[in-house]
Design goal:
Strand 4, helix 9 and strand 5 form a beta-alpha-beta unit. The protein has 418 residues and is of the alpha/beta class. It folds into 3 domains: 84 residues, no CATH class; 188 residues, 3-Layer(aba) Sandwich (Rossmann fold); 97 residues, Orthogonal Bundle (Helicase, Ruva Protein, domain 3), CATH 1.10.8. The chain has 14 helices and 8 strands. 25% of the residues are buried.
Length: 418
């Protein structure tokens, strides 16, 4: 009986709790529905008010702007002032932008030199500050003999002297320079004459080499343009000497020429299409037959440099013997003496006969070899046997170079068996 009563009370309590929970849920749902309607109504009211505010703001702004524009346009003085101010502002911005670039290029052309220029006599601010004494000497230096220290065949010397005189008068009369092609074996005096020609004519010289331009690819176009722009800024005029020019000025109809070299060649042709009062072009090559036909068309004169003959070789031997041996032996600061039992006039003539086929550069290296042999001896005395040994070595080296020069690679290479 007691147990049944307890179960009845528990069941009744459970039912009451369930009814309370159900009533609570229904109440919360009713409140949520009412709140949702209130929130929706509030959102609609807020959206309506926001839209109304935006429309009123747009209307007000349009009215203000319209009135301002109307007032502004009704006064021509204000219009002119504003337009002028905007124009000056835009001009100042673009002027500063491009002015800085132009100023940078001018400073670069005055202070520095293009990357392609290996050597130049043109003065700049940096060199002037570093070497003031040398700069002063160069400024007051008088023109010298264009063939001073250059030993060539008489007919070639006469031709080069005419070129030097014509170039000097062209510079003095502000005329158009003639372009020159110097062809011949290496070591025959082409670079020496180009430098001397520039100094004799009162011009600056700049030495370039085709081997530096060929590997640059597409960047060679920009580099070539920089060289010619730099040359135009010179007051004295620039002699542009391009050594080994056939490295990048070769024929364009060859299939093996790269697009970069082709573009560089076209840029070079564009810059040299007309005669110039600012620069003189001098090309040097050992293989002029490889030049593009347009390059040959731009050359006004062709000079052939040949290997020195017997008379020229003897003059060269005497000249370099005096420069590298005789003059140093007369000073106490050099450890070098000449043996007394040698007739050097006869010896120089003998060496000239033995050095057939050698260039002026190779003969100068023989004299340097004599000097080195004297320095390396115990007593610093140059003997006849030492001179003969150096000459024999130079002749053997020249013979080996000639064999390498005439050696041709086979057209086909046989496969090596495994």
């Amino acid at each position: 009986m007691r147990r049944a009563t307890i179960e009845f009370e528990s069941d009744l309590r459970h039912k009451n709790e369930m009814k309370q929970i159900e009533a609570k849920i229904r109440g919360e749902a009713q409140v949520e529905r009412e709140n949702r309607e209130i929130r929706l109504e509030r959102a609609r009211v807020e959206a309506r008010e926001y839209r109304q505010t935006v429309l009123e703001s747009i209307t007000t702004a349009g009215s203000v702007i319209g009135n301002g524009v109307s007032s502004f346009l009704s006064e021509p003085d204000k219009v002119a002032t504003v337009v002028g101010s905007l124009t000056l502002l835009a001009g100042g911005i673009y002027g500063a932008k491009y002015g800085i670039g132009t100023f940078t290029r001018i400073v670069e052309s005055r202070i520095g030199k293009p990357a392609l220029v290996r050597e130049t006599s043109r003065l700049n601010i940096v060199d002037t500050c570093r070497h003031p004494i040398m700069t002063t000497k160069r400024i007051f230096q008088r023109p010298s003999d264009p063939l001073d220290g250059i030993i060539l065949r008489p007919e070639l010397e006469a031709s080069l002297r005419k070129i030097a005189i014509a170039t000097r008068h062209t510079k003095a009369n502000n005329g158009f320079y003639r372009n020159i092609l110097m062809a011949g074996p290496p070591g025959t005096g082409k670079t020496m004459f180009a430098k001397s020609l520039a100094m004799h004519s009162g011009m600056d010289y700049a030495i370039l080499t085709g081997g530096d331009i060929a590997p640059m690819g597409n960047e060679g176009v920009t580099a070539v343009h920089k060289v010619f722009e730099w040359a135009k800024t010179s007051r004295k005029g620039v002699l542009l000497f391009v050594d080994e020019a056939d490295a990048f000025l070769r024929k364009r109809d060859q299939e093996r020429i790269s697009e970069g070299i082709r573009a560089t060649l076209n840029a070079f042709l564009y810059r040299t299409g007309e005669q110039s009062k600012k620069f003189m072009l001098v090309l040097a090559s050992n293989q002029p037959e490889q030049f593009d036909w347009a390059i040959n068309d731009r050359m006004d004169e062709i000079v052939h440099f040949t290997l020195p003959g017997l008379e020229e070789r003897e003059r060269l031997v005497r000249h370099y013997f005096d420069f590298f041996l005789l003059q140093p032996s007369l000073t106490k600061s050099h450890r070098i003496r000449l043996a007394e039992n040698i007739n050097y006039a006869v010896k120089c003539a003998e060496i000239a006969k033995r050095t057939t086929g050698l260039s002026g550069r190779e003969i100068s290296k023989i004299a340097v070899g004599w000097q080195t042999a004297a320095y390396s001896s115990e007593d610093g005395v140059l003997t006849e046997s030492m001179m003969d040994a150096v000459v024999d070595s130079a002749i053997a080296a020249n013979r080996q170079k000639q064999e390498w020069r005439h050696y041709k690679l086979p057209d086909t290479v046989e496969a090596v068996p495994n």
